[in-house]
TrEMBL record:
Organism lineage string: Bacteria, Bacillati, Actinomycetota, Actinomycetes, Pseudonocardiales
InterPro entries the record matches: HTH_MarR-typ, MarR/SlyA-like, WH-like_DNA-bd_sf, WH_DNA-bd_sf
Record protein name field: MarR family transcriptional regulator
GO biological processes: response to stress
Chain ranges of the HTH marR-type domain: 8-145
Gene3D superfamilies referenced in this protein's UniProt entry, alphabetically: Winged helix-like DNA-binding domain superfamily/Winged helix DNA-binding domain
Any one GO MF annotation of this record: DNA-binding transcription factor activity
Length: 168
């Protein structure tokens, strides 16, 4: 059995580089300018998270998925509600919880932003064969899904006890 640990670690490093590139302020500002949007990066990230969510998240769920503190998420969401990009609706199962949905304007704005980013990504690999593009997209998604499943399972296990050092 071959050990692909080094190659997988290199691929992980490459994905981290891509994530950092996509989070660069100048890239975000350029995409906003091209899409005709005036919104900061955190606002775009919130709209993106809400847009991709399978069901409307609560502010707490949004904060957890973005790995930010609850009060920070609450302030940012309030700004987006005030701007008319997000709506809060009452959770029918727990009236104390507000669920977040994008307004039509919020959907249109984040879709325009994503269209610019997707266009750049398409342009970057324009000379790749179509089958290579399909394969890399399929395999990266599968790889990340499998790692996420494995890590979620790993997180559910108790931590191992540290090995005892011999006295001496």
């Amino acid at each position: 059995m071959e050990d692909y640990g080094d190659e997988l670690l290199d691929a992980t490093t490459s994905i981290s580089r891509l994530t950092r590139m996509l989070r660069r302020t100048k890239l975000s500002e350029r995409a906003c300018a091209e899409a005709g949007i005036t919104l900061d990066r955190i606002g775009l990230q919130i709209l993106g998270h809400v847009r991709k969510a399978e069901q409307p998240p609560s502010v707490k769920e949004l904060a957890e998925s973005m790995q930010v503190e609850g009060p920070h998420a609450t302030r940012q969401v309030h700004r987006l509600v005030t701007r008319g990009l997000i709506e809060k609706t009452v959770d029918p199962d727990d009236r104390r919880v507000a669920r977040l949905t994008l307004t039509a304007e919020g959907i249109e704005l984040i879709d325009r932003y994503h269209a610019v980013i997707k266009g750049w990504m398409r342009d970057a690999v324009a000379d790749w064969p179509a089958e290579d593009k399909r394969q890399v997209c399929t395999l990266v998604k599968r790889w990340v899904d499998d790692i996420e499943t494995y890590f979620d399972e790993l997180d559910s296990r108790p931590f191992p006890r540290p090995a005892q050092r011999p006295a001496g």
